[in-house]
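Q: My collaborator sent me two sequences in one message, no labels, and asked for predicted structures for both. Can we handle them in order? The first one she listed is below.
A: Yes, handling them in the order given. First sequence, followed by its structure tokens:
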Amino acid sequence: MSSTMISPASPRRILPFVLPLLLSLPVLLAACGGGSSDSSASQASPSTAAPAATPPSTTTPATSPAAAPASVPVADFNIATQVVTTGVTGKVFGLKANFFNDGLIPPSPMSNYGFPNPIIPVLNADGSLDVAWLDYSGATQSSVSGLGTPGTISITHVNPDLSAGATTATSLRSYKLLGFTKDASGAFYAAYNVDHPYRNTVAGDVNNVNGNELHIAKASSASFSAKAWDTLVFGNQDNSKDKSKGNPGTAGGGVLSYDAVNQKVVLYVAHQMAWGDNGTRHQAGYFRYFDGVTGSVVAPAGNAMNMGSAWFYSHNFNQRLLIDNGTAYTLAHGDAYPRQLGFSARTLAGYLGKDNTVFDKPYQAVDGAEGDNTTNAETGQFIKLSSGDFAMVHATSQGRAARDVRISLVSGADGSVRSSAWLTSNAANTQAIMPKLEAYGSGFVVSYGLWNSSNRTNRAIEWHFMQLDASLNPLLLSNPVAGIEFVADLPLLRFTAGPNAGRVGWVSGNDSGTLSVNLVPAAH
């Protein structure tokens, strides 16, 4: 199928290439940031808690844990897991139950595409958690990119000691959970999708789409029974019409955050739009500010719906968002225009003035043809350091025998890569997946899975952790850790208050269909 993709940076330049219909294939989550935010949300204030990193003198690859150098000890990494029952009817997404699908191309859990997080945590100031989750009851392995019928979004409040939780079923029902956050007053915000008036069930029709409309709602209580507002962002259009936007979260996901400095809600989400070629729809990213009081869209300068931040990276397969002191930092996984794993920064003033970025730089250029839907890479997590720079991880097989984990230190001033190091050297068919990192002691802790891709139906993932110093030198490699799981796009969290202050943890589902809160051993 011949189609076009337009660059947000050069809106008049047309790039022809062959684009398979994204929706003709099931898509899979390819990787923090599902709930990243400023200090009031799921990532604690990175500018004060994370270490300032020292650039390493070399970027010599470390070997994988199976063949660790003698100078780097290998030891057990004892993860403490607290299972939290939800107490309501409904099932939390579980990795083994819902993630694997032999029909995915490449075979799961490897995919070039993302999908919306079915679980999103927010870390509160007292060390408690509010976790939004989409009910996956009855969902099959083919539901990885969204439910076949709308499910209830529930919110579980987990006590600061992580011992128990209380769940509220919201009034929101959706095919996809596209974002969740809170502000300092305790108000809740959720991004979700619903059907639009043109919805049909005609095979191959552009309006045969589950949940074409994108909404963001605000409420003072977890039930969302009395909404302060519920904004229809886009999607109430006939999808055959030129410039019509819809299908939020397609081949990607969504991230919602609150900018406390500017008192704005910030959304970054995948979507599709028709580009003047007989209704053919193309995928990209969409970035927008919303007024926190009224819910109205805060439009940028210029073309408010079709270019720039509203068409951010053609084929934007993964979205990451971190708000720090009024600046919005994003990661993008672009396959077309530009074809790169990119790191960007925006201020509200720049967005309102010329719809521009402070910087937009690659931390990895992606080989291959523009828009061929193959990047052989997975976006990981990024955090801001006390130096003002950033640390980020990703996985890629580019130039490697299989997908390996790479960590980079990147300038917070201009987005340039200061240094990087390979953390694994995997043999063919041993694929690194779901890389994440957090500040840990005076350095970092990195987590990742190893999956053998030679068997398409293999459901076994070996989970590993690696402790690094501030110069990215390995200090400790873990033995495989059993009995845990991750959600690919969710970040590791750093608790800054409560009984677990100083600890690193994360939230996941489990085999029982409830929530698990996991803690990494305390750093020394």
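Q: And the one she listed second?
A: Here it is, processed independently of the first:
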Amino acid sequence: MSRASRAMLGATVAAVLAACAHAPDPAPSPLPVPSLRPDYYGTLEPFASDAVYFVMTDRFVNGDPANDQRGQGGGDPALRTFDRPVPGDANGANIGYLGGDFRGLLDNADYIADMGFGAVWLTPIVDNPDEAFTGGDPIGSEAFFKDRGKTGYHGYWGVDFFRLDEHLPSAGLDFAGLTAGLRQHGLKTVLDIVGNHGSPSFTMPVDQPKFGEIYDDGRLVADHQNLAPADLDPAGNPLHRFFHSEPDLAQLSNNDDSNPDVLDYYCRAYSKWIGEGAAAFRIDTIRHMPPAFWQRFSDCIRDTHPGFFMFGEAFDHDADKIAPFTWPGGGEVSVLDFPLKERIDAVFGRQRQGYETIAERLYLTDGPYANPYELMTFYDNHDMPRMDASDEGFIDAHNFLFTARGIPVIYQGSEIGFMRGAAEHAGNRNYLGQARIDAAPGNPIHDALRRIARVREATPALQRGLQLDVAMQGERAVFYRVLQEGRFAQLALVMLNKGDAPVDVEVSRWLQPGAWRAALSGRTQDVGAGGVLRDTVPAHGVEVWVLDAPVRRDDLREALDQAMAHRLGGPAN
């Protein structure tokens, strides 16, 4: 979101935050109405209130077997699309469709919302080819971008970006029906979009229907014709003008970002899905098109949908390489926080490094990003091995993600440690299913996630507040999240312990006097001037102490003034 858009949102967000307060100010404020000053916040982005649950739709729940298309591809085993096990894989990996659909997602909306999520990110919904791909390289458990025999179950091989893939809707339940149903459960819909590529487009022994083709609501506008990129004739053949004549990812078409027709096509296509209820976009392979293209795209979308939230996937652990997409001129979108993900994995996975490993990747002041508080924080997804951690490691990771800066994203099944450590073709994308979802309550990872996610859901300071670190070393992290905007004011003091034994924590730095309450245990502590807040945090535990009051302590205000002045990054600062 641009800085101008954030400014316009300020008044609206102030009203929303005021409605979220859970307790009256314990002491009368000496500051005059209508507002408190100064303002302290990490972001005013409304979407920051919504933790995100990521669903690979085909691998979530088969709610309607009638749309499985089990006969698709005909009688040729090389072309069929349903149920294609990866040869020799012991974890049951599959590269065919397995039946997950909109009905299965909507049937489990209560399950997702009950955990404390406010949004669902689902994989692309657009039409994909109707056969398995016969070109490319043979797939294997360790294969990456080796697509022979694979199908479009994941949704990223778009053919007609204006039409739904037939595996997803049911009678009476199209995309608009899905988004409306999710909204009834308090869930926004984040739609995964692709601009860089369509389907696999060359190396097929015989040209296959839809592969390498792009349609505009049923009208053919581009066709690779099973030709290698170097053999395309964009100047002479109208069907080649959509594509670059250089390869990019595997055998996928490489859309020409310099062609205004490409921008127009995707702007119109994705505007259609906003009209049917998409509330935000996740942009696939954002770094495979230049930042200038994404600036034109985001401007196009926001011309008719001001402030529309988007975040991109730039798969790189170097913050300087992914941050440009957050700047003016680069798209002004958020990104998935891959640099932090690398450190989260090291701290909560089998390495069990200390919290200091994370601290330097938070970039709370003068960092490379336009605003670090709007980054999407995560530890794994469908494109990489799932995090390899113990139950306690997952619990610790969730305790951190749902209290620290950023917007947390959790991949389906992680709430039960599903297929932990498994790579893409070795179980990462395995079918989750209704039975596992029904059995999730009572799982220690699920139950601990639900507790801390619901605390974040109820605590605006954890969603948008500035972060001030008190200690982040070894097995312990202690930090404040402070939100004071308009007439709303809240301080949250977070205590994290990822060790195997309880730890005593004492905090006096920046500690403001008042009646603090523990969000998880419900206990209270009255802290006087110059006092100390003491607590014992259990092994692999968390507590969030909350004070609903304006900022009054001078040294706290000074620290917040500094954090506020330097929270934004990027070349413009």
